[in-house]
Amino acid sequence: MAAYSSKFFKIGSCDGQKVVDGEVMPLVLEPADPERKDIESLVEALGNNKEWFDQMITKNSAVLLRGFDVENAVNFNDVVEACDWEDIRYVGPAPRTHIHKRIWTANEGPLSEFIYYHHEMVLIKEFPKKVILFCEIPPPEGGETPFVPSFKVTEKMLEEFPEEVEEIEKRGLMYSFSAPTRNTTASMRGRGWEDAFATSDKQEAERRASALGMEIEWLADGGAKTILRPRALTRVFEGRNGRRMWFNTVVGMHGKEQSSATMADGTELPLKFVKRCEEIIEEESIQFKWQKGDVAFFDNWALLHGRRPSLPPRKVLVATCK
């Protein structure tokens, strides 16, 4: 494959880019011809270069389209559909609102909160291959969507905690998470179980949870405690150079008010293991400042991503694809 073979795009750059194992993250693609930055030309180019564009996302893990006239959810949906990837419905704790066709709001929790790094839907049996984000309103300060090459975390953790990594991998992980009955945007994890499972019937919710690999315990206040076990610490995916991804959400759920993370048999994880992992993830993070019209494509198999605290307004929309 010839690198950057599409004549429609030219290689750009952005603040915060890093080179990881010889690949630029994110790869910035801009219009090669300033006269052809309109949404129709972009959609046509993506449709004509689907295989090449897919390869760029796999190769670089993150691709940022910048400088095109992507103005709203309708335009963003056209971009997503041009790539011809199957949609996957979001399952998780984040409060979100459906906007248009395949497009949803990103996490609607308070902008003052940091959303911790995660692979999208990492705990569910079926998770997206790609997460696509569109910036409609860039925040005046903060609000970046930092991301982390997942294999780098595994490398560092194996260097510092080789025995612990293999022991946890062998025994597996267990997570629990408590959800209210109905949605609330007072928390970044405020999605209610009725919305998450698309039913208000508890028996039906239990059936749907089971299909996703979860158990449910009902709480006295009407909420639900979901339990997920066993889950892996790392995973290796086809086409990712044999890289061992840090495919878990230990740091994000360990010891939190609404959630927990332990070994699958309930044994507590070593605190120094969790704390050092948190430090390594931040050390390996990459981020850029959102600009209006940006569309970022993340390889969800290869990247963790999060959200920095932000001043309002900030409007970032999302689509998830198989």
Automatic annotation (TrEMBL):
Domain TauD/TfdA-like: 35-317
Keyword terms: Oxidoreductase
InterPro entries: AlphaKG_dependent_hydroxylases, TauD-like_sf, TauD/TfdA-like
Any one GO MF annotation of this record: oxidoreductase activity
One Pfam short name: TauD
Entries under Gene3D superfamilies matching the protein: Clavaminate synthase-like (3.60.130.10)
Superkingdom to which the source organism belongs: Eukaryota
Record protein name field: TauD/TfdA-like domain-containing protein
Species annotation: Linum trigynum
